[in-house]
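Encode chain A's predicted structure.
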Amino acid sequence: MAASVAKGTARATIQALTGRLGRAQVVAGITSAATAVVPMDSKGRRWLVYNGSAALAGHGAIWLATGNVMGAEPLMAAAVHSVPSCGAFVITCAGAYAAWKAAGVLRGLPGLLGLAARPAAALGAASWGQGTAPLITDVMAATAPWSSMLLPLIAAGALAGVCWWALDSRSAAWRPPVRWAARIPLATLALGVGLYAPGGML
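Encoded structure for chain A:
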């Protein structure tokens, strides 16, 4: 590699000294000699540096805050432990919305029955959804060890979606330093998954 670059540089220099190349042509000759061995396309390297530095900044902040170089490990474990509660919350919201929409066919009932149909249906579905956390826990226990392997990825995927929606999807027009700072949570989460998942207690 070094020999090829040196050869191209020497050739361009000799041609310039003999008056056969101008200054711009010398620069072009040196550049072409270098890019013949090392392509100028560094998009992948820029992407790696951009996201890698954001992930390292996030993990460094966690390290400083916890005093533990593996400080993100208990955070990931806590996210896994919260899956039953978070799952019950999602089921509650989804059930209430679905019941509200389904009860729309009852709006034609006379008087208070038509007015109360939707709220009553949504409230009933939400009450049922709040009690599904133990069911989710039982399903996790019954499907072990697969649940222990997949739950970190599921929890991280949900958190990654929130990070992307709240920050990354809105940061295109922001200044580069602010846009880089907005990438820190998502990049930190991605690196954490790579370091600590899969595994139930990580």
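Confidence is low (pLDDT under 50) at residues 36-40.
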